[in-house]
Amino acid sequence: MSGQGRLVLVTGGASGIGRAVARAFAEAGDRPVLADVDGPAAEKAAAEIGAASVTMDVTDAASVQSALAGVTAAHGRVEVLVNNAGIVAGGGPLAELPVEVFDRVVAVNLRGTFLVTRAVAGQMIASGRGGCVVNVSSAGARQPTAGLGHYEATKAAVEALTRSTALELAPHGIRANAVAPGPVLTPMTAGLMADPRARAAWESRIPLGRIAATDDVTPLVLFLASAAAAHITGVVVPVDGGQLLT
Question: Is position 135 within any domain?
């Protein structure tokens, strides 16, 4: 990884939206670091896009601190954080959902976002040079889907955390925003989208009539992290083809 662009830490960077976001930052001249619990997958993805990688379990505070320390020692301070790591871990009615599934989704989606934000924000504050956080939420935070209540609850919490982060870190010149995609074609959704009936059911909820590609999401992430968005903080912007209108 070379160049003089900003250092961008992308969690869940080995695949899906995270990988696409990291690639877009690299193409824009920044220096992305792909953080993922699957270290070999992150390393492979990073090599393919000319980036760096680090193994990080976002649910574990010690892992987060150790990974961040390694990134800082090797590449310098993180200037942009993209909290993308997230899972669904299955689904089902809340009355039947295994507690283990709920706990796992909360650990990754909410606790992980908190732990990484806390660690990176501390570094940004100490530097005195500001920074930027972009969280990945979901349209489901505001539009329920039966069987996904556990996942959607964590994304609603991520949106609340985004606003608190923006308010508390603004005096330090640190902005925090979020993007809220509808369904996106990624490895996480591939199984569902391979079922024609399931895919048609999702598409029927989207006024623009199609499932998003990762490249539909990346431009907004880059914009929110850019100087063009210098006076924007605490917002959650949908990228959902109009799904929240229905």
Answer: yes
